[in-house]
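Aim 2 progress update. The chain analyzed this quarter is reproduced below.
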Amino acid sequence: MAASAEPCVGQDVWNGTEPEPTALYLLNVCFLKTAGVWVPPMYLWVLGPIYLLYLHRHGQGYLRMSLLFKAKLVLGLALIILCTSSVSVALWRIQRGTPQAPEFLIHPTVWLTTMSFAMFLIHTERKKGVRASGVLFGYWLLCFLLPATSAAQLTLRGGFRSDPFYHLSTYLCLLLVAAQFVLSCLVDHPPFFPEDPQQPNPCPEAEASFPSRVTFWWVSGLVWRGYRRTLGPEDLWSLSRENSSEELVSQLKREWTRNRSAAQRHTMVRAAKKKGSRGVETPEMEPLLEQEGGQRGPLLRAIWQMSRSTFLLATFAIVISDVFRFAVPKLLSLFLEFMGSPTTPAWKGYLLAVLMFLSASLQSLLEQYYMYRVKVLQMRIRTALTGLVYRKVLVLSSASRKASAVGDVVNLVSVDVQRLIDCFIYLNGLWMTIIWMAICFIYLWQLLGVSALTAIAVFMSLLPLNFFITKKRKQHQQEHMRQKDSRARLTSSIMGNMKIVKSHGWEGAFLERILRIRSQELGALRTSNLLFSVSLVSFQVSTFLVALVLFAVHTLVAEENAMDAEKAFVTLTVLTILNKAQAFLPFSINSVIQARVSLDRLAAFLCLEEVEPGAVDSSPSRCTVGETCVSVHDGTFAWSREGTPCLRRINLSVPQGRLVAVVGAVGAGKSSLLSALLGELSKVEGSVSIKGSVAYVPQEAWVQHTSVVENVCFRQKLDPLWLERVLEACALWPDVSSFPAGVHTKIGEQGMSLSGGQKQRLSLARAVYRKAAVYLLDDPLAALDAHVGQHVFNQVIGPSGLLHGTTRILVTHVLHVLPRADWIVVLEDGAIVEMGPYQELLHRKGALVRLLDAASHPGDSGDGETELTTEAKDPRGFAGCERPTGGPGRSMKLVPGKDGTTSEAQTGAVLDESEWAGQPTAEDSVQNGRVKATMYLAYLRAVGAPLCLYVLFLFLCQQVASFCSSYWLSLWADDPTVDGRQTQAALRGSIFGLLGCLQALGLFASVAMVLLAGIRASSLLFRRLLWDVVPSPIGFFERTPLGNLLNHFSKETDTVDVDIPDKVRSLLIYGFGLLEAILAIMVATPLAAVAILPLVALYTGLQSLYAASLCQLRRLESARHSCMCSHVAETFQGSAVVRAFQAQCPFVAQNDAYVDESQRVTFPRLVAERWLVVNLELLGKVLVLAAATCAVLSKAHLSAGLVGFSVSAALQMTQTLQWAVRSWTDLESSIVSVERMKDYDRTPKEAPWKLPTCAAWSPWPHGGEIEFRNFGLRYHPELPLAVWGVSFKIHAGEKVGIVGRTGAGKSSLAGGLVRLLEAAEGGIWIDGVPIAHVGLHTLRSRITIIPQDSTLFPGSLRTNLDVLSEHTDEAIWEALETVQLRAVVASLPGQLQYECAEQGHNLSVGQKQLLCLARALLRKTRILILDEAMAAVDPGTELQMQAALGSWFARCTVLLIAHRLRSVMGCARVLVMDKGQLAESGSPTQLLAQQGLFYRLAQESGLV
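Predicted structure tokens:
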């Protein structure tokens, strides 16, 4: 401030004519003094007003007048007084006539005003609650460093002797500024009245000082805790209000709504102008509005308006960072110039070393601040978009839900949102890399002159190669993704239908199909990796190629040009920046393109059709007795606004307290009527009104992944007495009583730990518990057997049930309940054809009578009078649970106990074996701590020891070539110059080029071998995973969630395929690069070894601290993210129920809580990453300082070439060390996938698939005689027997029916027959051979099973019909003709090669069941098992199946498992199972005459 004793005049100030080194005139006293006077005020006056505006908008309360503030105030006043005295002295001297240069008055005046402004900022910060100021920290730092440097030089030169006043005032000012700087490193007390409420575990960032913030040392406590022990939820910080879902989602939703409305208005006006009718919206304009007005633009603007301030601030930081980035090469040039000048004072060398250290450090700090702000912004955008998508899910119309699968929605919140936010990091790269390139070429022009143009030529020549490689690699990547998707679909289908696969012995065939697709997938990946290796080498070697051409042209073309250290190593430093820019630009473009695609997908989803808010006129007040509670007047409804009506001219009035039954054939519109009453359909015309609260039971039961009590209460207050009554009435109390934790037992995902009947009764209990006025019941009795269904109707729905006195609209196929209904509505083709009381409709002999006649037809699949069509699905049956057509792509996983020992109510313990319900299996337990070394060894063993050693040898060779080329360049730079030329330039350049070519070849070979070795390892690990999982017993698949299995075959496999080889490649490149840099520094400056060894130790310590915490945080983050995605998927499937119960607000709050919990883990992880990077880079900058300082100390005997070699290596070592540690840490987090792929290597396995003794019995079986001898089985070793003491004999060719209540053990017999469950006692003999002595595939290939659920796998029709490829096309066509499908298949595109969609969604249910029958016909076995095979088909399809079975299996032994007794009335013998034992056996006539259990079942079914 006051260092002005020498005015900046004279010959030695800015002398550009003398050939003095640049370091002399850039570091002279005048330059430093001018910078010290003007830079701090300019800094504050530029940033101060912006900072004031920020404070005005972001107040946090005010601070009390603490001791710290008072100290700052006193020091500030002292500085103002000192500046005032300097101005006064200057004026006094001018008044006395003493000549004074203008700077003596101007400089103190500028500092006086700036100090006053600084004090104003200190006061404003206190009022706005700022506890640590970054702006003032920088100001005080500048005020101290720059004047202190010039003052020190003036002191050394004796410049203060002529003016003692300025001497004293300068030191006093520096002392006060230093005190202010120290105070700015401290943090003040918290605000007296904070704006945000106090959090239970607040983030320590608010308590951190500014130095702690910029270095992220406030994270050290968490990192240290993570190193010492396992991190838990209590260790995670609370989210601040500005990062919470409540704040962010509301902000984005507000901006999105405003921008979309504006876009729609703009589009409407434009369309109206085109049509000549301004402001009139016509129906033809609606698609235009959806396409143009509500897509990408409004969402993009909404995101920008929400994030622009943060993003612009971060962009400003990265721009300043780049200023320091390009200052480093300039300082290096000055330093090498200093080393080449023997007369330059040593202090300038030290100063340049410090300036290089400070510039590199500030560049790192600002860059990491940019990364921190952008990462936090990414986190906030993800929170906002996830919340916006979730809120959209809750208002999607039925048509929109059908157009979007649950997997699509999960992909939106997990994949598309991630891709969109990823582009924020790369967005600035679109323009900044262009500026980088321009600055680099300017630098090169200054260094090498016209020769710099060759750099542009070389880079331009490499572009076509890179574009070609990128294009070809993209093609192979697309092929890789197609094969991966194909494998994922097939794997999902196989794992979801493993019971069918195992029952038929198809594991081997499907394994071959998966491995064949896997081979094609890895082939595409192999080619893509080779192309990537070429691309990577072109980028890595481009620095060398450009340097070679530059140096060759510069030294060989122009005679006066010679190579020196400054040109050589500054050029390499600039080329490194240029290469980074060249590599970063394609990443930026690719990221933005991917983000645009994801933005389009998100915008398209957010613009989907929503339910109409006013479609139903609802009133919360209850009706009085006799008053109309539900009314529809002239209602016409459609599934979408553009669709055709599905309900026409509906007129319906339901008085309060009535029980209305809605009946009709399949597709008549019964469920659509309930959807219309809920407002789920688009109302074309008419009106709908409902008085009172509504409860809804959907046809497909929807349960949540929570406890039983939470499912029943459904966000309502718990009433234990009412809950007990509801569970008792819904026949759930016995089930719940046997669950491990009672009503607090957690239900598995999608109700996987419950049977279909239990889920339906739980869904009904949820509605009953609500105590609503209106109940809409969509066929709740369909999934229940006759006994349980009768109980539920009597206790809940019927006139004397819990719901008596409420309005009930019951859609049903169970016709025997119709006489007990008050009113009956009959639907046909979407219209009401008749309605009235039961007896009146019987007398009319209209539509209802026709339905009753059809139901009593002998060929019908129902229980005679009891059911119209069979929609009862017994998930406890042999085939597992049917997946609804058009539903999510994931089938339900069921657990053992589907035919337990007692009843459905008594098998709760079986269903939740070992407390499986809602808990992870032992195989999927979450690991803690760091990854064990055995996992690395497992991966290396998969690669192979010879290949590992070969890869290391290749990397060593290419790194030796790299070191030699750099060292050779230093020798070239030190060659003596004769007449302006170096005599050995041609030799030096040739050998430099040869070494570079060897490095390129070595790099290509080493990288390619690493990637190919990774493919070898992933192929072997995937094959082992398949063989660990597929041979597991069926119980493993029933208690392991399908999502866990698929995660291993998709995400974990993809990590092993792609991520781990890439991380190993990075680690080896940077690891060997680190060794090269250390060797270079120690060769040139051996003294630097004193700094290198401690730095390496610190690096290792930091990596250990960080890696331990990172693994835990990533595991926690993955678990929290999975919970959030599961909740989104769960809500999507049950959104109609949520809306019917008006529970949107609680669900939104729960989703916000899930997202916030996920972000509570994400935030510590991202700041821990910044903590690691900042500290690693700062340690690396210390190495630069050490190398430069040692070079200055050894200047006398060091050449400039060696110094350039050493310092440039130190500059590169900073990045190399950082990326080596990060690569190791990333590898450790990725190697967790290897750990997870070995999760199932110790699971129990099935018996052998084939045995050598089986060949001696061929052909077997020859007759088909089956004998059970004291047979018993259990579902788990710790559980009691589910079936015991069963003994009977079935003669060859005999047709036997097996009946019993749900859970009696019927399907368990079939499972024991094909050894899905091994016998616990006794055994089974087929034609005198014990099946325990037969290989599983041999046994299962001799038995044909036709399950209830028609299961088709992805692939052609031919592969579905002939899975083992054993039959000719003629045999397949013959089977199709038998089931009357030949004409249908012949009309399909490709005929037998027609591709079946997943689960056969592109075929009807009847067609799928007939295809399964044709598949069974082709097997031609002696034993046939029908497990409710005709339960889910219409009467026409059943007649076709019966005809085919009668002709093809006339001589086979047939076991017919059925719930409905009418199906077994034609059997020669019937076995009645009860509580796991054989209760009765005989012909149907004999059993009816005994009037035992079979007779009671017949009574319940209405047959007697």
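Confidence is low (pLDDT under 50) at residues 1-7, 9-25, 277-294, 857-926. The CA atoms of residues 882 and 1349 lie 6 Å apart. These observations will guide the mutagenesis experiments scheduled for the next reporting period.
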